[in-house]
Amino acid sequence: MVFTTLIVIIAGLATYSAFSLGTLNAASSAMVEGPVRRLELALAANVAALDAIRAQKNALIAASPTDDEAFFKQSFAQIDIMMTSTRDGLAIASAEGKPYWQKILDLGSTFQQKTETLKSLETLGDHTAAVALSMGDLRALTGDLMTAVQSLIEIQHKGMEKTVSENADLYGTSKTMLVTASVLSGLLALAAAFWIISGIGNGLKKIQAVIGAVAIGDLHQQVEIRTNDEIKDLVDSVNVMTANLRSTAALADRIAIGDLSAEVNLLSDKDVLGIAIERMTTNLRVTATIADEIANGDLTVTPKPASDKDTLGIALRNMVERLRAVVGDALSASENVSAGSQQLSSGSEQLSQGATEQASSAEEASASMEEGGQHQAERRQRRTDREDRPPVCSPRGGKRQGCRQGCQRHAHDRREDLDRPGDRPPDRPARSQRCS
């Protein structure tokens, strides 16, 4: 708004100055083409009349007719100049000066006729009459002519003075207007300068705060400004910058949590940060792909570090090399185990054959033991049968007590015989011995 007011004032000043200069120029041109030109023509007519009179006087005192002719010719030439100047002056005459121009024109015609009469008298040799005409009618006519010319000169002087006065008034008015408008413009410009400086200072402070926050990693700052000027354009640029940084930070955060599907939108071919993140994402995708192939058991891949400082790439390459070494050792060990398994299988077959033979021997031993058991059972049955028979003791004489003891011993020996292993029966008392 302030700039619009200043522009309007300056445009008004320029218009008024041009108008004032045009007015002054028109007034000056009018003065030059009017009073000055009319004054010039009046003076030319006056000078021509005086030169014509002087030529007439010279002709009257000339020593020869030839000189008379030359002077009269000069006089007529000056009269023609006077008449021409008078006609030109009458054409541009003002209302006030026009009667005087007409009077000079009439007097000039009379003066021209009297001059021809003067020439005729002098040519005819009537010098006295010529002198009388020159000193009488021509002198009176010349006085009237000079009076009219003087009146015209005064009128032109007055016109010039009026024009000069009008120009001076116009100059004073224009000067007052221009000075006033200039002072007002200066005050407005000063106020606008303070306002602009204040706006620039506030805008720069806000921008400084945002840039300071960005410098320490705070990308959540936003500048708001109400003006509509270059500072607002700068603020908009800073806001766009912070918005782009926030977008880049969000993208980097997605990459940080392992999301490598994020696409980088480059702001331009000079977006250094965007290009760097794009390269980083591409390298991480390649690394992730290689790691996935390694996880699937493909150790034929060969990771290529992006540089000698690519820690992740170098570590991945070393891991693959070590895994290859481990797998090679495992393959060698598996081959050794396979060979040992073959030997163990052969030994197992031999052991199985021996076990079969042992099983056959065990079956034979079992059969022998079963046959021996049957023999022992038969023997025990026979013994049981013998034991079931009662002993015979004779009740005679005093041998009854001895017989009873013998029977007890016989029973005891039978019980021990049942518990004694072997095929041979123990010794027994004679069958002829009886207990009663």
Structural features, described:
This protein has four domains: 2-198, Four Helix Bundle (Hemerythrin (Met), subunit A), CATH 1.20.120; 230-301; 306-389; 390-419 and 428-436, no CATH class. Helices cover 80% and strands 0% of the residues. It has nine helices and no strands. The protein has helices at residues 2-60, 65-91, 98-124, 127-135, 137-215, 230-256, 272-295, 311-387, 400-419. It starts with a helix and ends in a 17-residue tail after the last helix.
The amount of beta strand, in percent, is under 5%
What is the top-level CATH class of the largest domain? Mainly Alpha
- Helix/strand-derived class? mainly alpha
Largest sheet properties: none
CATH A-level architecture of the largest domain: Up-down Bundle
Count of separate structural domains: 4
Count of helical stretches: 9
Shape: rod-shaped
